[in-house]
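<instruction>
Derive structure tokens from the sequence
<data>
Labelled lines for chain and fold
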Amino acid sequence: MFLRFISALAVAGALLVPGLAGASGCPDHYADGRAPEIRNPKLATATRELCYGVFGVMHSGVTRTPLWSAEHLRAENVDAAKGLKRDNDFHAESRLPRSQRAELSDYARSGFDRGHLAPNGDMPDRRTQRESFTLANMVPQDSDHNRHIWAPIEGAVRTMAKKEGQLYVITGPAFLGNNLRKVGNVIVPSHLYKVVYSPRQKAAAAWFTENRANAEIHVIPVAELERIVGIEFLPSLSQKQKERMLKLPKIRQKKARSS
């Protein structure tokens, strides 16, 4: 199954089929109440929606990671999160079958971080903070990438949310190429992305970057990311709206130290 799935991912952007979607159990986390739609049917294998207090996940039992994690990020949540001390309560997701979920042992001594998709720094209270530490909201992430590239991107989104009042944010992995790695039973993504949609401006854009130290940060239209990944992230928007670029902050990344 693993090899068949990877082959499917490699051609995801080439497949144009009707989106696979049902009614979301947590529509408040998505723009216009519509969750992303999987365009490549092979990506839908062993998927399961998980709803949390302020974010929603589409989990893949094949990769044992999310396909995406989505938030309706409000300025007041950003303010509330500032007052919380981080509590590193990483845990396996009990709602998932053991045969499809990540375990703490998968990440142990792997050299990879347990990288949040919906960030701990966006969580407004203890309950939602704990929810963000489920491994169903994590991917294996290069540690330098996490600290020097991803953390600045997450901070930039919070700054935007304060200015805009609210944003819809979708964060996820891409599994591109034929040389993907695994840590334990969890597939390591080749790339990570973060889609940001401003309801006020009715425009969106995405950051897209390789999952490695010192990776270049690309800012691309949502329409382009959809072609690359094989998922329609904002199905309520027109193609023209998805081609229109929301201005994203320039990220000043720190260079990782040479070993």
In short: Helices lie at 2-10, 75-82, 104-107, 126-132, 143-164, 222-229, 239-243.
